[in-house]
Amino acid sequence: MLPVWILAIFTSAKSFRDNPIIGSRLLNGAGLHIIRVLTARAITWVRWLILSPLASKDIRKQLHENGFALIEDFLDPDQIREIRLEINQHEGEARQMLQGDTATQRILLDDKALEGKPVLSLLCNDKKLLHPLAYAAAKVTPPLLYVQRIRNGVRNKGVDPQKTMHADTFHPTMKAWIFLEDVPQEKGPFTYVRGSNRMNWPRIKWEYYRSLTAAKNPDGYSEKGSFRAGPDDLKAMGLPDPEGICAKAGTLVIANTNGFHGRGQAEDNQSRLEVWAYARPSPFNPLPGLPFKSVGKLQMALLKGYWKRKDRSAEQRNSRASWHLIDASEIKD
Questions:
Q1: CA torsion sign, 159 to 164 to 170 to 174?
Q2: Average pLDDT over residues 157-175
Q3: 3-state helix, strand, coil in the chain (%, to 5)
Q4: Cβ-based neighbours of 64, under 8 Å, separated by 6 or more
Q5: Residue 178 belongs to what H/E stretch?
Q6: CA distances from 156 to 99, 151, 152 (A)
Q7: Is the pLDDT assigned to residue 328 strictly greater than 80?
Q8: How confident is the model at residue 264 (pLDDT cuts 50, 70, 90)?
Q9: Cα–Cα nearest to 147, from 182, 177, 118
Q10: Which residues, in sequence order, are bridge partners of residue 178?
């Protein structure tokens, strides 16, 4: 496996636990992790410059200063009402992941799911949405789009790990939310540490020292390359407290999830409904990808194939896949 482990250094591979080269204390002491972080960041800036015409100056400024951009009234009340009606009429596949006491429920918005849903379909193909998402992701390949519902306090199974502030991986990535209902504090709003997207000296030092022990970190996620940051970590980096982005229905939030973020603490039995977008580019490719829908469709086909393999494997073990099938009615109002 040594050649594979070495080649993985030049990809989006991030696990300190599964790759002894990426997780090597000796190599990270010599700066391997920091070299990957800074090289990926420099290459992302090249792609951001190439794609800068796709996003307004205001959105670009918000993303680079704060780590997230907030666009209110992206959808009007009539669009929200029609989209929610279309979701309630959905009879196709839906999936769920349980983490701690929280259920994340999703409908992948592929061609089949969008059949008979003209307003959702128009949204998913709207350049007013796709262009700023492409800029934020530094990637023109269409992002994965889902209908998503987050249900809080659905079972007594400990803490949801997504409610601890974390960075998704070592390089800039994009997630976005269009809220289909008002999201006050009790619903657990998307939460971000403002300015934590910047790779300044305090963040670089923190990344360096965390990389030395990440392979043996017991929190279940840092060793896989998604570093968790507690209050003391944020203080050491000179960062502010996490900020819940309470928003009214129709608001679009786009975030660089290399910054520290998470779900807000919510009251039990509260939920939020949204259209959710995700894109993770190749960190060391200076080209922003291909803008063809066929590439996005291939990405969806590969994802669905992966889910089916996991379903078969879970069935053979008489268990349940992490992203398991549920009745679509569980997502509906």
A1: positive
A2: 94
A3: 40, 20, 40
A4: 197
A5: strand 174-179
A6: 11, 13, 11
A7: yes
A8: very high
A9: 177
A10: 252, 275
- Over its C-alpha atoms, the chain yields an Rg (Å, rounded) of 20
Beta strands in 66-159 (DSSP E): 68-71, 94-99, 102-108, 144-151
d(CA 323, CA 307): 7
The residue-averaged pLDDT of 109-124 equals 96
What percent of the chain is predicted at pLDDT more than 90?
92
Nearest to 151 by CA among 270, 263, 255: 270
Whether the Cβ atoms of residue 132 and residue 254 lie closer than 8 Å to each other: yes
- Average confidence score pLDDT of the chain: 95
Nearest Cα residue to 67 out of 312, 253, 289: 253
C-beta of residue 177 within 8 angstroms of C-beta of residue 252: yes
* φ, ψ dihedrals at 312, nearest 5°: -65, -45
Instruction: Kindly state the greatest CA–CA separation across the chain.
Output: 58
Two tokens, residue 247: 């928003």
Residues composing the chain: 333
Cβ proximity of 228 and 312 under 8 Å: no
Alpha carbons 205 and 200: distance in angstroms, whole number: 9
Which position has the token pair 């973020």? Answer: 261
